[in-house]
Predict the structure.
Amino acid sequence: MRITRYLKYYIWGSWLNLVLHMVYCKSLHATCCIVKNGISCYNYFIKTDYIYGGNYMAREYKDQKNAETEAKIYNLKMMLPDFCAGYIRSIAGYTKPLTQLAYLQRIQFFLMWLLDYNVYFNKKYDSIKQFTVQDLDKFKKADFEEFLNHIQKYGAISKEELDARMQTGKYIVPSKSSTRNNYLSALRSLYNYFLENDIVDKAPVLKIRQKKVDKTIPIALTDRQAESIYDTILGGSEQISARQEASRVITSARDLAIYTLALHTGIRVSELVSLDVHDINTDEHCFKIIRKRGNEDIVYFDNTTENVLLDWLDVRKNMKETLGIADDEDALFVSTKGVKKGTRLSVRSVEIMVKKYAKIAAPEVTNFHAHSLRSSCATKVYDKSLDLVYTQSVLGHANISTTMRYVKNDEKKKKENRTLLDEKRE
């Protein structure tokens, strides 16, 4: 859409408007080349926009998601006690919106738990909005431990839902230690702020230790499993129901592009769904994305990925009306059904799709999810390159210790080198 606007300016001869609009979009370099090379600007602009700053739509998508999260934070702020306002302002300066939202949701659940299970607060207040800052000094270490034990045993479900499950005898899956630790971190963060600002005199929650979390080996698909999933997306399977097969016929080109792109580049699902059509640079075999912490990164793709991407782009173009894709819809991957048909595919939709095909084609792989494609890519890249720094670069990890997760549990190398220290005897 931006390129169309630029060409209008060119055709109309409004050079001043063109330059001003380019400067606004931080593409002045491209403007100079347009003035110099005349009508050949169109193809050059696409490349220049990509290399020298581009990816505005990905940034716009990221900003849109942040704005949605900020709206949720605002709504939570209205529900939380007034004394939380200063804390919310303080964490906004050094944490991402999603982290802020997670912390506030956990604090909200803690206060709601007090309202439901603590006799004192249950009699005193009707809503968590009524809590005062003086109440914070009333909590003892045992109160926090009781809450964390509740989280560990039942998870973050409401009292009404918990009572209903108890009456029906429905099994309640205990939470992981990491879930309990996440709630503890949120409460620690809140009390640290109040201590630093002399709002409370004590913070017994800071005396509670995090529980040790058992490290799990990241899931890595074998070549056979990866190929089996690929073949199932492409050609179906006897295990697929008639309804699933009817859907697969429509979405196979899209799903194959998503699966291959995630498996061969290791990008996160959130990064994948943020891609737009014009982000794909087939000349340079790469695209630019906005990483987890807002940094831009260039990701290169192989020939296999390029082929499935081109196939999907052809399908997307030829079935534009059938898929309900509007002219101004730039998303690379779009939904093919429901009320969101023709609009950008969601993270959740990708997760459901990947899990569905993995369950059919590789049922022996337990707990498989979309992020497993990223860990599979990481393992494969390291196995082939034996270069930890390169693997870190491919994954876009800020800390190499995160990348080390795919190296420490290297069963293949341990098996191959089991006789490394054997002494040779004549």
In short: The radius of gyration is 26 Å.
